[in-house]
Design brief:
seven-stranded mixed β-sheet, 212 residues, elongated, mainly beta, disordered N terminus
Amino acid sequence: MFMRAFPQGILAAFFVSVLGVSACTRAVTANSGTEVITALEAPVQRASNSPMDHSHMPVLLPDGIPVPTLSIVITRDWMSGLNLEILTENYVMDAPPSTLDMSVLMQPSINHETGFAEGHAHLYVNGIKIQRVYGNHVHLPDSLFKPGLNQINVSINNHGHMYWMANGRQIIATLYIDLDQDNLVKHRFESYPAMKAADGSLCTTERMSQEG
């Protein structure tokens, strides 16, 4: 397994298996100077007193359901802060219905129209859970970050806030960014990248090259 010493304040935990990264991610990051990390960096979560917080619990993708993919892209906002884009495939991201009871929330959330997993995302900065995310674009204010190196994690979660797993891997995307450098992104990991070969899918070298 790939291990690295992180500066103080960067919180990271590693799973024991080395996970693959798509050819597209390798190619794009090689051109931009971004280093690919091939070990899963799980966000360290703030303790919650809510009995409804199941974000530390996994939910397994059922057999026959397409595996959701997840990538994240970060750019500087022209006024202040950063803009985060969340890219997914085979996933329906939406707010949970208000009528669900606990027994339903603890089950895999499957969209009956598409047959895809559904739910939302959880956003972490430097190991602290910031918010739920129900859409693909989020503005991140400067107040979330410290000078220098920072960590951004995004997981996708079912309606009960349990994090999705497929084939033994959590579906998660991680960026290490350095706010003091022109090239924001220093390290990237995605367990199931949404960015693939340039064949009309979500992967676009132009978008990735504009990070920072």
